[in-house]
Predict the 3D structure of the following.
Amino acid sequence: MSTGKFLGFVAIAISLYILWQIRQVLLLAFLAIALATVINRLVQLLQKFKIKRGIAVTISVILVLALFVGFIAIIVPSIIDQWQQLVNLVPESLEQLREWYSWLQNLIPGQLLQDIEDLGDLRTLLENISANDTGWFSGFFRIFSNSINFILKTLLVIVVTIMLLANPSAYRHVFLLLFPAFYRQRADDILSQCEEALTGWFKGILFNMTVITIFSGIGLLLLGIPLALVNALIAGILTFIPNLGPTLSVIPPAALGLLEAPWKAIAVIVLYIVIQQIESDVLTPLVMKNQVSLLPAITLLSQVTFAIFFGALGLFLALPIIIVAQVWLKELLVKDILNHWENPRQNSNSNFSDGRENQANKYS
């Protein structure tokens, strides 16, 4: 290996190492860019009414923050009240589990019950839970530290978003300088397509989250499930994470329903299945006509991969990142490179080349 190739390999390795070390910062930067892209549509709408951009940005940011703060002010008191109900419900739930375990002991033959205990060690689990009832909130300082970390990251995202909104063309120009001069116009067009896809997806997912929160809340209230508001909000928020989110959102209300009556757990599962079918078969096709189509298996595997490597934030941002990445792959890699890849044996085997060209056009 020549010296130049060796130095190039070392430079690439160092760059990848640095990128890995700052992966959380990069994810926060992408979140800020995504928010700025979406809010910029509101800014452009205000500019159509002859409002200067600086004033339009200020109005848009204040409006978004006011909606967020208003949502928190309305919802948080109810969540705190229902959280206190959950704390009071824990001892009752543990007692219910113990009663079921005693009933199971009388119903199942002794040897079979012993096998079940060997597999799950249910008795030990219940005893440990009972012994630690008073220690569930012992991690106060860890919660406080995580809260401070979350607040600082949120402030960072807000500040960067405002900076991007103040002068987006300058940042866009800097990004386009990374491409060769002949390709910058094409790269600018691809950025515009990414903006359209990301904005359309955000509008659709925000609508879906709102509708699912309302439907879930109404359904859980009718079923008499405790903490209906909290569980409805969980269902709405987890809609942001397709595939995994709906599955995770059904667990808390189903568990609470099971503690009251087994039929309620079944009813909760049926309710969530119906709501998700409405979301996937009616809402999504209705509000996401122009969204980039994503293959379900690729989406699921990408979410799992992002969750493993980047944690909760990676899972949360997996879908918008996949949407942007798919636009770039389709436009840059497929249309601009692979579809124009010349066959070195074109002159000697024109029929084969024509077949390759037809196949390429089929997937373009």
